[in-house]
Amino acid sequence: MHFLIALFLATHALAAFPDCANGPLSTNLVCNTSANYKDRAAALVAELTLDELAANSVNLAVGVPRLGLPPYNWWSEALHGVASSPGVTFAPRGEDFSFATSFPQPILMSAAFDDGLINRVATVISTEARAFNNANRSGLDFFTPNINPFKDPRWGRGQETPGEDPFRISQYVYALVTGLQGGVGPSPYYKVVADCKHFAGYDLEAWGGVTRMSFSAPISTQDLAEYYTPSFKTCVRDAQVGSIMCSYNAVNGLPSCADPYLLQDIVREFYGFESWDGWVTSDCDAVGNVFDPHHYTSTLVNASAVSLKAGTDVDCGMTYATTLASAVNQSLVSESEVRTAITRLYGSLVRLGYFDPPGGQPFRQLGWSNVNTPDAQSLALEAASSSIVMLKNDGLLPISPSHFPRLALVGPWANATTQMQGNYQGVAPFLISPLQAFQTAGFNVTFAPGTAINTSSTSGFSAALVAAQDADVIAFAGGLDNSVEAEQNEEGEDRLTISWPGNQLELVSQLASLGPPVIVLQMGGGQVDSSALKANRSINALLWGGYPGQSGGTALVDVITGKTAPAGRLPLTQYPAAYVNEITMTDMTLRPHGSSPGRTYKWYTGTPVFPFGFGQHYTTFSLSWASKPPASFAISDLVRAARVSGGFVDNAPLHEFRVKVRNTGRVASDYVALLFSSASAGPQPAPRQELVSFTRVKGIAPGASATASLPVTLGQIARFDEKGNSVLYPGQYEIWVDTTQEISARFRLTGQETQIVAFPQPR
Ligand SMILES: *[C@@H]1O[C@H](CO)[C@@H](O)[C@H](O)[C@H]1NC(C)=O
Ligand SMILES: *[C@@H]1O[C@H](CO)[C@@H](O)[C@H](O)[C@H]1NC(C)=O
Ligand SMILES: *[C@@H]1O[C@H](CO)[C@@H](O)[C@H](O)[C@H]1NC(C)=O
Ligand SMILES: *[C@@H]1O[C@H](CO)[C@@H](O)[C@H](O)[C@H]1NC(C)=O
Ligand SMILES: *[C@@H]1O[C@H](CO)[C@@H](O)[C@H](O)[C@H]1NC(C)=O
Ligand SMILES: *[C@@H]1O[C@H](CO)[C@@H](O)[C@H](O)[C@H]1NC(C)=O
Ligand SMILES: *[C@@H]1O[C@H](CO)[C@@H](O)[C@H](O)[C@H]1NC(C)=O
Ligand SMILES: *[C@@H]1O[C@H](CO)[C@@H](O)[C@H](O)[C@H]1NC(C)=O
């Protein structure tokens, strides 16, 4: 997305509904709520001339004045709260609709490994979105979530995603999309329409002279099926999302928005069984990019034609508006193909209640009083505090103001406010900085920023050292923020290094030599190499706090003081700094090879600083199997049972593993149970490990036990062959719980190798 353009267009006319009571459309079937939504949309589209179709095939649809069809902007945003975007207009400060609840960034919320939480957050976001829409302040279609796996630690937009693991992302996206849309393909009305982006293989902005606008990602069919697309399968097939977005980049030479293999064969046929009637939007200007800079077509008119024919229904941009009519005139695409695309768009608006008569429209009761409610505020706090990951603690934490009254707070995040929102943010109702939160908690705080995120200037050091010298405890808050990691401009941005930027660690080192104990808060979405902090005994504790949103300071202080026991787990790997010298960003392969140590916790052959899934607690747990795992499963029985039960075979159960979790320490705490597996069966090299199930068990009291139920599906235990098919292979499997392999078991799959999912093959 181009954010500068987004802000520029934000002043465009506010949405309004078509007049289905008295206007020219009132006699058209589109306004008849007893009719089927497809017929209603088709009846409207039948009225439109080719020029009117073209004028409404772009995100800034101008409507049809003669029919009383108002303008509509398809592009609103709500990644972690209703967000500033072309379709969303916040009111001036002090007025109603001047803010919306600002939740943490997905990379942090993902760390809670609590999909009930994600669903509750999405439900609040869609409620607030409807309230904004009712006030003519937002659209009903939101270009969210970003579900490309965060594969390369340098990626500038990784903070928008739920992390690096396709299974974790899939569970997150299911919980999120069903919360936003109001259920699975809800009937009769969508609450709002979500948009899973960016399909496919998009995780590079600008690196080494290559940009997202022209990059052609070389991706094997195996990696496409196994790593880059499972989150989209869950989004379209299982959560029945209303729309997806094709990406700027090309895959194997074909720009995504012009690729019928991606958009027809994979999305509509394989995920949607040809019955998915959601729509596909281009990323903004991606249709124009098919012509330039991709040079896939020799004219802009043909770029429109090939994109529409491939399955891009709406152009976020202006290319369709200016060229589709010519493309039809030149017989590069048929008018009926254009009508099909526009019918999908209006079908989705019908399902949103947009064409219902005023008295009958759904969700009309939602208004300003439903925004930033006390429940929403406490949910934003819970989403942050339950996600924060404790990476190190030598026993110092938790601390209280009675034992450590004087706290020195230093670093470029110490008084963070808007920094805590990350990117794709809205206007928050309030932003509780770490400084404010420590003061509220009763600490006597001395504050000095000390340094900036990325500077070599040491001019602030002495003030910070003075502030810290008489303290009982020193807290340093720094790391990354949008100034070094986010998509900042039209070119986008990736990091070149994954070390702590600037001189922050130098300042931490000087603070650590003063004497008082030191707590480091590592903030930001991507990881930085904290191995020096991990190894150094002068650093007593290390927390990762991501972008924690409106109550971020309170969440951090709640964890530090023990009001909330930390239980988050890293949804991504923290690599050593040298990793970026070992692999290029343009290398899309996952498995290790001559010039790659492998990617993500599944294939990385080196030693991470902190592994995917890592996180510590204020208490200790002992684990045992609550029921003994079976020693073997017959593949034929599994597949037969799956076919009998109906649903998708890959969603059918292998087994529900049950683990007894006993709190053997002295602090009540949640525990995230992560079940990993590895296979010696099937094609080699196999992933070293794969997350196959997880659950968050809440509030286990000291001395008490709880049972973690860990269902594993056939799809999770299947392996991907070179053609991307999912196959159950006979042989030996190992499973274990937690990154520390607290308990483990082995089982065999017996019988014949059996394919359970056939992946579409390239054309
Ligand atoms: C509305 O649609 C229903 C179902 O298609 C149809 O039976 C009914 O006659 C329509 N009403 C009007 C006023 O057209
Ligand atoms: C929104 O637009 C509609 C239609 O133009 C109008 O009737 C209504 O008063 C507007 N609502 C608000 C809150 O501005
Ligand atoms: C349009 O572009 C496609 C893809 O490059 C190409 O196959 C086709 O021949 C082009 N058509 C025209 C008329 O240029
Ligand atoms: C389509 O072609 C006709 C006849 O060649 C021409 O009159 C008309 O202007 C063309 N329309 C567009 C949009 O190119
Ligand atoms: C902290 O940040 C807020 C908001 O930017 C600012 O108003 C306040 O003065 C800052 N506090 C200090 C002590 O610098
Ligand atoms: C806070 O600490 C400073 C410096 O040690 C001290 O002068 C001041 O009295 C303390 N304030 C309170 C409220 O304890
Ligand atoms: C930090 O600043 C240096 C020097 O200006 C610059 O070269 C580097 O790219 C910056 N790093 C990041 C991560 O922005
Ligand atoms: C640990 O930090 C202290 C204080 O900054 C420093 O003197 C020491 O050299 C560090 N040790 C290591 C192994 O980095």
CATH topology of the largest domain: TIM Barrel
Order of strands in the sheet with the most strands? 11-16-15-14-12-13
List segments where confidence is low: pLDDT < 50 over at least 5 consecutive residues.
1-15
SS strand fraction:
15-25%
**Assigned CATH class of the largest domain:** Alpha Beta
The CATH architecture category of the largest domain equals Alpha-Beta Barrel
Q: For this structure, what is the CATH homologous superfamily of the largest domain?
A: Glycoside hydrolase, family 3, N-terminal domain
State the helicity in percent bands.
Answer: 25-40%
Quaternary status of these chains?
single chain
Mean pLDDT across the residues is 96
Structural class: alpha/beta
- Which molecules are bound besides the chains? 2-acetamido-2-deoxy-beta-D-glucopyranose
Number of strands: 27
Count of runs of 4 or more consecutive helical residues = 24
Please state the CA-atom Rg, rounded to the nearest Å: 26 Å
- Any idea how many domains? 3
Termini gap: 29 Å
Outline the biggest β-sheet: 6 strands, mixed
Short description:
Helices cover 28% and strands 18% of the residues. The chain has 763 residues and is an alpha/beta fold. One 2-acetamido-2-deoxy-beta-D-glucopyranose (NAG) is lined by residues 454, 484, 495-496, 501.
Question: What does this protein structure show overall?
Answer:
With 763 residues, this protein is α/β, with parallel strands linked by helices. The chain folds into three domains: 2-368, TIM Barrel; 377-603, 3-Layer(aba) Sandwich (Rossmann fold), CATH 3.40.50.1700; 621-757, Sandwich (Immunoglobulin-like), CATH 2.60.40. The chain contains 24 helices and 27 strands. The strands form eight sheets. It has a six-stranded mixed beta sheet with strand order 11-16-15-14-12-13, with helices on both faces. The longest helix has 20 residues, at 115-134. The structure holds 2-acetamido-2-deoxy-beta-D-glucopyranose (8 copies).
